[in-house]
Write a structure and sequence with these properties.
It is built from four helices and 14 strands. With about 210 residues, it is of the alpha+beta class. The protein folds into two domains: about 100 residues, Diaminopimelate Epimerase, Chain A, domain 1, CATH 3.10.310.10; about 90 residues, Diaminopimelate Epimerase, Chain A, domain 1 (Roll). A hairpin with a 4-residue loop joins strand 4 and strand 5. It starts with a strand and ends with a strand.
């Protein structure tokens, strides 16, 4: 079995929760895309990352069923693990920085996979939502505090690959930030925390806490 690390990305204020991420530090052990896809399916994380060049930050991202050119929580997790100034993904170069307990990435909304953003009347309504049938990728959200930019959210991938709800989704947070045009403090899933902030030139920062599982 190939060696890999397991990280929890976008942990809550006490270091709990977060979305698990598999990271194969030596991607050269598994150079073939079909083999990478098979391992990602076997591990069963919402995403698994293969690091192809740790010094340059070259990475390759897979869900259990498909390869992604960019994804938020994998980039935040690997940025924390490698501590490099940027990551190179098929979508483009992702800027990174560490700031105290938070790790940040800087990316473009158009790099994010498609998500359907659905607004609800209150956090209580979002909390009560049942997992929808497989279909579109749904990011359900409601304002907790408009003035403070606090949002309650849940993510439903709808892919039929065993991941019925995503604990924390950086790409969806990036898209929601682009749509609302303001910094957000998002609580997703059981209690994961995602911070975002619009930047110049159409870029958006996404940040959170990372822990080694």
């Amino acid at each position: 079995m190939t060696d890999y690390d397991v990280l929890r990305v976008f942990c809550g204020p006490r270091g709990d929760h977060g979305n698990e991420l598999g990271v194969v530090r030596d991607g050269t052990d598994i150079p073939d895309r079909e083999d990478r896809q098979a391992l990602a399916a076997k591990l069963g994380f919402s995403e698994t990352v293969f690091v192809d060049d740790p010094e340059r930050g070259v990475i390759d991202i897979y869900t259990p069923t498909l390869r992604l050119p960019f994804a938020g929580h994998p980039c935040v997790g690997v940025a924390w693990l490698l501590d490099v100034p940027e990551l190179v993904t098929p979508a483009g170069v992702v800027g990174t920085r560490l700031d105290g307990e938070f790790t940040w990435i800087e990316a473009r909304p158009e790099w994010a996979p498609s998500r359907t953003l659905k607004t609800y009347a209150s956090p209580a309504v979002v909390n009560a939502l049942p997992v929808p049938a497989p279909g579109e990728w749904i990011y359900a959200w409601a304002w907790e505090d408009v003035a403070a930019g606090r949002v309650r959210a849940r993510g439903f991938p709808g892919r039929g690959d065993g991941i019925t709800e995503d604990e924390a989704t950086g790409a969806a947070a990036l898209l929601l930030t682009a749509e609302l045009g303001r910094a957000l403090n998002i609580t997703q899933g059981r209690g994961s925390q995602i911070l975002t902030a619009p930047q110049p030139a159409g870029l958006i920062e996404v940040g959170g806490r990372v822990r080694l599982a």
